[in-house]
Amino acid sequence: MSYQIEFRHLKYFLAVAETLHFRKAAEKLFISQPGLSRQIKEMEDVLEVKLFDRHNRQVKLTPAGIYLKEELSKNLKSLDAILHHAKLLEEGKDGQLNFGYVGSAMQHIIPDLLLKFTKSHPNILFSLKEMDNNKQIEGLISQDIDIGFVRLERIPKGLMATPVLKEPFCLVLPKEHPIDMNNFESLSQLKDEPFILFDPEYSSSYYENVMDIFHHSGFSPLVSHNTIHADSIYKLVENNFGISIVPKSLQNHSISTIKFIELDNIPQRTTLSAVWNTDNRNPILNKILTLIHKEIS
Q: Which positions fall inside the HTH lysR-type domain (predicted)?
């Protein structure tokens, strides 16, 4: 019976399932509302399944509709990727890989990885997008990105992770700050300073790890600003709005107005991990994962 269902039916069904509103879905699809209703009714008749409950202008998915939405959303994403890959092959490319990453991954990890990968795979297109940890997880689940580089202790079911870098933290201070590498002894020397930290939304587990540094130093910090970008932290520190703690890989010695003190003598470390969706069928993904596992083994 499935041969009677055409791709347009699936497209129309998903539009209504996502909006739960026939008029809005019709506008999105650039077709008339009565026409859309006929297409959905036709799909229900062919499948002999009720997909929507309609009561008092409210539209709800039936249990069968919920199941179909989840499965079609996942599998049509794979179909789009397959068709896109075929187009790339026609254009002489071997494929495309979409990266998400937190800023620290772009300092060394990703550039080094791409340099090594392109030596054996020169015809791959790369899309690189800086994203916070939670946005990457969303992008991996929806398969809008193929691989992410995050600082998270826990990831959702269906995703896999492998650590690529475990590193200490470092202090960020204005250049003229009286504390430097010669007289720094412990973080408690800075207990009265305002701190500029990565926002908890950047990664709650990362934020907890940084808070643990302060706890072991015997004080609670005065947090004056939160942000999700290292560049914003550096600009605030430069202008004497406070000091900061960042992963060691985020050191940027080209900024002459700030300085860094490595915190190698404390136990806390932060881990950067590569994360991917086990349902992702992009053939290039497995190739780069092979390289990643080789590099960290």
A: 5-62
**Triad 197, 199, 205: Cα angle to 5°:** 100
Q: What separation in angstroms does the CA of 9 have from each of 38, 42, 76, 111, 144?
A: 10, 8, 12, 43, 23
> How many C-beta atoms lie closer than 10 Å to residue 158's C-beta?
11
Q: Do the beta carbons of residue 153 and residue 270 sit within 8 Å? A: no
Q: Find the domain containing 52 and state its range.
A: 2-85
H or E element: which one contains 100? strand 95-101
The amino acid at 238: E
Closest listed residue to residue 261, CA positions, set 185, 166, 151, 167: 185
77 in the same domain as 22: yes
Same domain? 17 vs 62: yes
* Residue 161 shares a structural domain with residue 289: yes
Which CATH number belongs to the domain containing residue 111 in this structure? 3.40.190.10
Same domain, 223 and 182: yes
For residue 230, which of 41, 45, 84, 104 has the smallest C-alpha distance?
104
Give the Cα separation of 26 and 41 in Å (integer).
Answer: 14
The answer to whether residues 159 and 189 touch, using CB atoms and an 8 Å cutoff, is: no
Q: What tokens does 197 get?
A: 């930290």
Tell me what pLDDT residue 76 has.
Answer: 74
- Beta strand pairing status for 169-174 and 194-198? unpaired
* pTM score of the predicted model: 0.70
Q: What is the pLDDT of residues 26-75, one digit of tens each?
A: 898 889 999 899 999 989 988 889 999 988 778 999 999 998 888 888 77
